[in-house]
C-alpha cells in the first residue's frame, strides 16, 4: 500500500497535489511519502512479532536521504551500511551506533576505524583477509570489534543476475565450505569478538524457497560453530524481500508470510536475529515526477520524451526494470508508446511499447515505486544536475535535497596551472 492516490482527477502524495510540487520544485523530482515509509516500517516490525528483540537495520543503499533515514530512526529502525559515507549519513540522521551493521566486501582500514570509533553493533566480514585487517585496526585503536562472517550459502536467489548475491560465483561472503576455517582463524586474531553469522542471497526476492534453503544451511552452520566452541549470539538474515513493480505479475510474499517462515526455520536457534530490509520499506514510498517535453511520432508508434532520464532513474536501463507509468491528471484516454529521456543514449529508455495514459507535451507523469534505488543511483551524466528530493507529510511538504545546478558542477572542476596560464585559442 502507498499514499499516492487520485483526488478530483489529479494524483496526490498524501494530501499534497503532485502538480503543486512540480510547480514549486520543478521536474524531474523525487517525491517520498512519510506515511508510506512509516506504515511499511510498522508492517515489517509486526511481521517479526514473537522474535526476541530483532534488530531491523534498514539497508541505507536503498535510499540514503537524511530525511528518510531520520524518519526510519524515529520508527525504531537501525541501519545496514556498506561504506563510511553511509555510516556517516546514518549517524547524522540519528540512528544509534549500536543499531548499525557494517556490510560490504571492500571495507577500508579508514572505514573500519571510523566504525570502531562510533561503536557500531557488528561488522559483517566477507573474507579472512578482511578479518586480519580489522584485527590490526582494532588493536591499534585499543578497541574490540564485534564480528560475524557473511557466509555464501551457494543458493540461487532466482532474481536478476545483477542483484543476486548468494551463488557460488558471486563476489560476496565466505564460501560455506570455508566457514569453519574462517571462524577458527578469526578466533586467533586479537581485537575481534566473534558474535554471529550473516547471510544475504539477493534483492527483489519474489519466492521464499531460496531464502528458506539458505537459512536452513545457516542454522546447521550455527550448530557446527557452537560445537567448535564459538559463542554465536546473532544471526543476520539479510534483506531482499521484493515489492510489486508490475501489477500484471504475481505479488511477492508479504512481510507477514516472510515472518512466519523465519519463525519456523529459526526456532531453537537462540540468537538475536538481524534483518536488512531496504526496497520493501521505501520502494513504494517514492515516485519520480517528470514532465513531458514532447511527443514525436515514430515509424510505428509515438515516443513520449520526458525530462527525467537514465541518470535520474537508472534501473530500467541497468536491469530492464519495470516501473508503472501514470499521468498525474489522466483523461481516461490510453495509447501505446515508448517512453524515453533526453540523454544521448539509446539506453535512455524507460519503457517500450507500453500501454499507458495518453499524454501530451507539458503533461506531468510519474514513475511509481521509485523510492528505492532511484535517487541514490543517480549521476550527473550529460552534465545534468542531481534531481531534487521532496518529502511529504500529510498536507506539508519540503525539499529535502535541492536540485544541483550546472554552475555547481562546473565549479567542482579546476584547471591545471598550465591551462590557466595559456589563452584559449
Describe the structure.
By secondary structure, this protein is an alpha/beta fold. It has 2 domains: 157 residues, Beta Barrel (Lyase, Ornithine Decarboxylase, Chain A, domain 1); 247 residues, Alpha-Beta Barrel (TIM Barrel), CATH 3.20.20.10. It has 13 helices and 21 strands. The strands form 3 sheets. Strands 4, 14, 15, 16, 17, 18, 19, 20 and 21 form a 9-stranded mixed sheet that branches. Strands 5-6-7-8-9-11-12-13 form an 8-stranded parallel β-barrel, surrounded by 4 helices. Helix 2 packs parallel to helix 9, helix 5 crosses helix 6 and helix 8 runs parallel beside helix 9. It is globular, with a radius of gyration of 23 Å. It starts with a strand and ends with a helix. About 3% of the residues have low confidence. GO terms for molecular function: diaminopimelate decarboxylase activity. Its cofactor is pyridoxal 5'-phosphate. Pfam families: Orn_Arg_deC_N, Orn_DAP_Arg_deC. It catalyses: meso-2,6-diaminopimelate + H(+) = L-lysine + CO2. Homodimer.
Radius of gyration: 23 Å
CATH architecture group name of the largest domain: Alpha-Beta Barrel
What can be said about the biggest beta sheet? 9 strands, mixed
User: How many distinct helices?
Assistant: 13
Low-confidence stretches: 157-168
Count of discrete structural domains: 2
The averaged pLDDT comes out at: 93
Catalytic activity: meso-2,6-diaminopimelate + H(+) = L-lysine + CO2
Protein name: Diaminopimelate decarboxylase
Subunit structure: Homodimer.
GO molecular function, one term: diaminopimelate decarboxylase activity
